[in-house]
Known about the structure:
- The protein is an all-alpha fold.
- It has two domains: about 10-45, no CATH class; about 55-155, no CATH class.
- Helices cover about 75% and strands about 0% of the residues.
- The protein has helices spanning about 10-25, 40-45, 55-75, 80-100, 105-130, 130-155.
- Helix 1 (about 10-25) crosses helix 2 (about 40-45) and helix 3 (about 55-75) packs antiparallel against helix 4 (about 80-100).
- The mean pLDDT is about 80.
Amino acid sequence: MVSAPRRNSLSCRVIREVCDREARALPRTSRRGRKLDSADVLAYQCGKPMLSPAKIYFIIFGALTITGGVIGYVKAGSVPSIIAGVITGLLLLAAGLLLPEHRVAGLAIAFIISLLLAGQFIPKFARTGKMMPAGMMAILSAIGLIMAIIAWVKK
Length: 155
């Protein structure tokens, strides 16, 4: 039997009450057919993370990448900027939205896209020294790689 950790704060009691109400609607058997008691159901429901830092980061990173591609098109008329920005941005958004339920797929997509963007923008930033857009994208890509690795290792 898994039990939820005991805490005395008001917010934890409120969360526990909400989880208890929601637990009543959950199935009472596990995937293996084992009967779940109320403590197991409550621990399962309350233990699910709402939004992980990696999820938030990759959603923001995706939105910024799309925005950057649109700005590159508007300012310089760069069709490759909008195409690459929208495709990689949508993939980063998808990766963020897959987390935490589909952790392996979400982190794999986020890592690969961050690696591709880092491979493009870190050398460009080193060559030009321009903070926009190369420097910003180099930093965001490096953070994306680190976030994906940490989230993968953390399990």
